[in-house]
Amino acid sequence: MNLFVFDIETIPDFEAGRELNDFDGLSDEDVVSAMEHMRYQQSGTSFQPLYLHKVVAISAVFRYGDKVKVWSLGDENADEKEIIQRFFDGIERFTPTLVSWNGSGFDLPVLHYRAMKHNVVAQKYWDMGEIDSQFKWNNYINRYQMRHTDLMDLLAMYNGRANAPLDKLASMLGYPGKMGMSGAKVWETYNQGNLKAIRDYCETDVLNTYLVYLRFEIMRGNLSMDDYQLETQKLKAYLREENKDHFDEFLEAWK
Which fold has domain 2-253? Predict the structure, then answer.
C-alpha cells in the first residue's frame, strides 16, 4: 500500500484581494470583510472563488510499506509555495495513490491555481501518458481513474445531490468526525496567530478521511476485516507513540 490521503486548509487571499479590488489602505481584516461582502452581493455566499484561497496547511496520512505517518507539510514557518511544492514533490518521489474528500471539487483546483501563482513544478502529477505510458490509463487528472480517489465524489456516483459531509459520515461509521473547530473558523484562528490549531485540525480531518477510505476498501473487497483490524491497530499505535494532544483527543473520541 502506497497511499497519500490529504486535506488542505485555506484563508482568503487578502493580498490578491487588495490588489484586484484597489483596496489600498485597508487592513488585512478589512480587506477580507470587503471581499466577503462583495462576494455575497455577487453570488449569495461569502465563500471566495477557488483562485482566491491561500493555502495555509496541507496535512496527510501516508501509508507506505509497513509504516503509517500523519503530519502537516513543512513547519509552521513554511510559506505557501514551500508547502505546495512539498505536496507535488511527494507525488514525484513516491507516485502514491491520492485520496481526498472533495479533492476534485476543492483541494486540487485550489492547489492548481496556487501552484501557478508560485511557479511550482508538478510534472508527474500532470502526466497523462506523455512521459510514462501507463499514466495514459491511470493518472491523477482523470475523474474516473483511481490514481486519485475523491471519496466524496465517487461514493455519490458523481451526483452532487448525493454528497455526504465527511464529519457526519465519519461519525456514522464510528469515527470522531469534526474536532475542535471547522473550516469556517480557519481565518479567525489564523488571525489569532494560532497556525498550530489549524494544522492540528487538518490532521484530524485527514485521519477521518483515511478511516473512511479503509471502510471503502472493505466494500471493494480489497481489504478483509482482519486486514482492517491490523490497519486500525497500526494507526492507533502510531498515534499513541506520537504523544500529541490532538491525537490523544482523536483516540479518545474513536469508538
Answer: Nucleotidyltransferase; domain 5 (3.30.420)
